[in-house]
Amino acid sequence: MLPKVPQARPCIPEEDIAALLExxxxxxxSGRLTMGPYLARFEQEFAACVGTEHAVGMxxxxxxxxxxxxxxxVEGGEVVVPTNTFxxxxxxxxxxxxxxxxxxxxxxxxxxxxxxxxxxxxxxxxAVVAVHIAGLVAPDMEAIRSFCRGRGLLLLEDAAHxxxxxxxxxxxxxxxxAAGFSFFPTKPxxxxxxxxxxxxxxxxxxxxxxxxTHGVSxxxxxxxxxxxxxxxxxxxxxxxxxQLARLAEHTAARNRLAGCYRRVLxxxxxxxxxxxxxxxxxxxYYKFPVRLPAGQQREWVVAQLRRRWGIEAGSVYWPPCHLxxxxxxxxxxxxxxxxxxxxxxxxxxxxxxFAGLSDQAVERVCCGLAELLAEGACGVGQ
Length: 382
Ligand SMILES: Cc1ncc(COP(=O)(O)O)c(C=O)c1O
Fold this sequence. Notes:
The protein is of the alpha/beta class. The protein has two domains: 14-245, Aspartate Aminotransferase, domain 2; 247-375, Alpha-Beta Complex (Aspartate Aminotransferase, domain 1). 40% of the residues lie in helices and 14% in strands. The chain is built from 13 helices and 13 strands. The chain is globular. The structure holds pyridoxal-5'-phosphate. Pyridoxal-5'-phosphate is lined by residues 60-62, 85-86, 88-89, 131, 158, 160-161, 182, 184, 195.
């Protein structure tokens, strides 16, 4: 029986585990379990890596999105968010008291381009969220940024997939007015749970530091505003520092595996459509999406990959936000609202991708997919 191939897996080399145990011992002996020197160093090194003046560690990747939108005062206003994202991107607008206004996608890139965003901008729009879906900096980022500047809209990068990604040399996380990263276990950099806000706005960074500690001022002990507990503990920060030191190596490994997927899928000529590559971009390859040929059922393909070969495939994202029961019920969205997203995303599967994946596993995944696609539409209804 061949080993299962998970969709994603954290990559923590044995030597990092040994080093982390020493870090953990030092933290535990120090008695300083939160808001200590490891968090300060993690924030400093993360900001240097992303190229922003400030980075603020938080307890999740949703927290920085919510906090930036709160600071920008989106309450009562609208935030334009791609329908193709993890629901946390648009929930952040709701948590901040605003209304997420979803937008369709470009069929080639799976990302919302300027035309799709512009179509949803209105009088009440305060901010736009650009999601670097699957780890590729939004292909229209430059145009989206100029548009937002021209219209006085704030631009939030959801960089939850994009640690290590770049556009023309500029790191994801430094391309908008602020960005949020997630450190969930499947992400290119993990702390188990956690997240980071990156920004050049000193006042936003100060607000985030205060908000994550119940709204207490950063200097003293006075309660300045409503806040909550969005802190990142010292043990997590120590973990994050070790992961950050591996980021370039892990990004290179995922890019090499993506090249391997492309070569094998082209060689097998199975009909799975590869997404375009963009000059000047470093892709984080958080996920490796492919589009199934028309007539293939994604649910069937995903189920058969798992059942026959123990291969876990996933999505970016199915269902899209506007088809979730909550968004249909509470915000009035429904089938047919974003036809491109509905058509394209129902044909997209993501293949296993993580730095520790072997070339042999990539070959097995591609051969399995090719076998299923050769069976073709006989899968329908099974
Ligand atoms: C695109 C996107 N945004 C935001 C988040 C939220 O991150 P977290 O689960 O750490 O809150 C995720 C997490 O999966 C994500 O994929």
